[in-house]
Request: fold
Amino acid sequence: MTGDEVYELVGAALLVAGAFFCLGGALGLVRFPDILARMHAATKPQVFGLLLVLTGVGVSVHDLKVWLFLSLVMVMQILTAPVAGHLIGRVAYRSGEWNSDDLEVDELSDDLREAGFTRNEEFRPERGTDRPTRSLD
Amino acid sequence: MITQLLLWTAMAMIGVAAALTLWRLTTGPSTLDRIISADVLVSVVLVGIGLSIVVFKNTSALAILLVLSMVAFTGGVSVARLLAPGAARRQRYRRDDGSGE
Reply:
């Protein structure tokens, strides 16, 4: 086995690991019950799966210029993924599309109450979700 | 030989992942589910492009990878911002003066 073949084998193994994280994230997206749980599954291919695949590409090609490019992609993904995640999580929480029985800790509802927000009595979950919502009192 | 097998396995996994994500994208049930699935679909495409670089031994797709990783989050952010101010019945909490946020 020559050196190049070893590089390609290790790179392919890393690619399979990254693809496995993709598969896991997609399975979680299909199987998990509500948005907050699905967001948890969605971050797997977005950050760690992609990092594994990019490392695999870098090991397979083993070229310094490619590594520079790939590290830029990694940094961009790590910087931008939390921005979208934060906003989607905020809207998901406030539109009430989650099952409160699944939450062990819900510190945000206490903070919201302290900040002067009260529970909206007119609130109805969006059409298509008939999950129970917990009252704050 | 083993390398080829591993690459085929990775391709199959990505295919199944994309199919499952598309299923969630079409069935919803809510808009937020669809945003999340769209974001995941973009990262599955990123992984697929990375795989194609190794399979075809051609690094010209790296630029696509870079641009896609920079703009992928804008879709989720913009739709989430448009959803946020919704109708009164769609806000779980609001201020006592009824101003919404």
About this structure: Strands of chain B lie at 93-95. The helical segments of chain B are 2-27, 31-56, 62-83. The first strand of chain B starts at residue 93 and ends at 95.
